[in-house]
Amino acid sequence: MVDSIGVAVIGAGLAGKAHMAAWRNAPSLFAPTLPPVRLVSVGDVDEPLAAAASRRFGYERHDTDWRAIAAADDVDVVSVVIANRLHREVVEGLLAAGKHVLCEKPLADSLDDARAMADAARAAEAAGVLGRVGFTYRRAPGLAAIRELVQDSTLGRVLHVAGRYWTDYGASPDVPSSWRFTGVPGTGALADVGSHLAYVAEFLAGPVTSVSGGAFTTAITERPVAAGNVLRGQQAATTGETATVTNDDHATFVARLGDGAAVGTFEASRVATGHPNGLVVDVLCERGSARWDQERPSEIGLALQSDGPRTGGYRQVVLGPDHPYVAGGMAMDAPGVGWGQNQMFEYQARAFLDEVVGAADALPANATFDDGVHNMEVLDAVVRSAAADGAAQTVRRAVHA
User: Fold this and answer.
1) Are the CB atoms for 29 and 141 separated by under 8 Å?
2) What is the C-alpha separation between 122 and 118, in angstroms, rounded?
3) Distant-in-sequence, close-in-space partners of 35: CB < 8 Å, separation ≥ 6
């Protein structure tokens, strides 16, 4: 095992800070089998933002060019948490420099770029360098618990998955334009939060094989231009000019999953006032149903047919040490303590460090870049369905040697 692991984060925005905190806390989770983790650098083109973040989270320095991090001998592991259109250049450069890379989803802003990144990651892994994509909600103890209830036949075969991810960071027309509001249809709400719906559904019910009913809406077509840097959903000084919104505020689609017998219905929005981070998933099965709600992440709803009509119906199951990721994964790993999305980033980071060092007691590994490509292939099918007035589209899976 290596003597220590130096980590860096490229991107000092909202999700970037979650990664910074995760690397800091990951060594304290579960059994203390990792070598020391060194918090080396925070990278961002916005120098004041990078400097402030590095001080806040205890990183040794900050950089304004990702190439400095790629060239740094004291960096081994890098999170890439920047605009999707920038992922390919940065990730391929880091992999070529021998850095292990954990990239945020979606993997890129185009399927061609994602597939090229997956090719680069496979080549790098042959040389011992890992590329993984962060599917953070796979680490939600509630969703992992529902998956176990499906797989051990408590719930039985999945019939229907209903998911919606409503956010409101774009609900106000006064929110300035940024990279999130530019791009072709499918790069807006669908890519940002709908991508989570796609991999969560597959986590619970098997791979998406086809998509129909794709539809996009752009509710706010013009946004003010910011005078400087702007983080997601935040107000900022503006120039008085406006920019056209070119991608989707709202997206819906239907999917066939697994062997084709299970159906999924999904809705993603960034203009849902009053729902700042509203991911809700219902899994309806032959022997019962389960529900997980991001706003109540420390519990699941569970209804079993075996309870009978007299006492049946949904009941609250408070998550605790008998459920995934809880025992040993928190300082106070007791029922009813509660946790949230920040802890999911910590579990994700710990799993990546486990894989980097080859830990014997490793957590389940993060998604591969090939998994990231498949996630985008599902989104591509939604885009094609929307362009064909909702017609069914097969998910086109890449074939590689």
Assistant:
1) no
2) 6
3) 1, 2, 3, 4, 5, 357
Burial of 91 (0-12, 13-18, 19+ CB in 10 A): buried
Peptide bond into 297 cis (omega under 30): no
* Residue 118: both structure tokens together: 């997956």
* Region of poorest pLDDT, from 41-45, 186-190, 396-400: 396-400
Beta strands in 247-366 (DSSP E): 250-257, 262-269, 278-285, 288-293, 299-304, 315-318
The two three-digit tokens of residue 343, written as one number: 């802890």
Which residues have C-beta within 8 Å of that of residue 370, sequence separation ≥ 6? 118, 121, 122, 398, 400
DSSP secondary structure string for all residues of 265-287:
EEEEES--TT-TTEEEEEEEESS
For residue 365, give both structure tokens. Answer: 């590994």
Cβ-contact 285, 158 below 8 angstroms: yes
**Exposed (0-12), middle (13-18) or buried (19+): which is 32, by Cβ within 10 Å?**
exposed
Sign of the Cα torsion 202, 348, 9, 115 reads negative
Average pLDDT (260-289) is 97
What single-letter DSSP state applies at residue 193?
I
Residues 6+ apart with CB under 8 A from 56: 17, 20
pLDDT at 1: 61
Do residues 10 and 50 lie in contact, with contact meaning Cβ atoms separated by under 8 Å? no
391-396 contacts at long range (C-beta below 8 A, 24 or more positions apart): 391/212, 392/210, 392/211, 392/212, 393/210, 393/211, 393/212, 393/214, 394/209, 394/210, 395/207, 395/208, 395/209, 395/210, 395/211
Show Cβ contacts of residue 299 under 8 Å, excluding neighbours closer than 6 positions: 142, 316, 317, 318, 319
233-244 pLDDT, tens digit each = 566 778 889 999
Closest CA to 6 of 23, 21, 26, 31: 23
Q: Which residues contact 401 (CB under 8 A, 6 or more apart)?
A: none
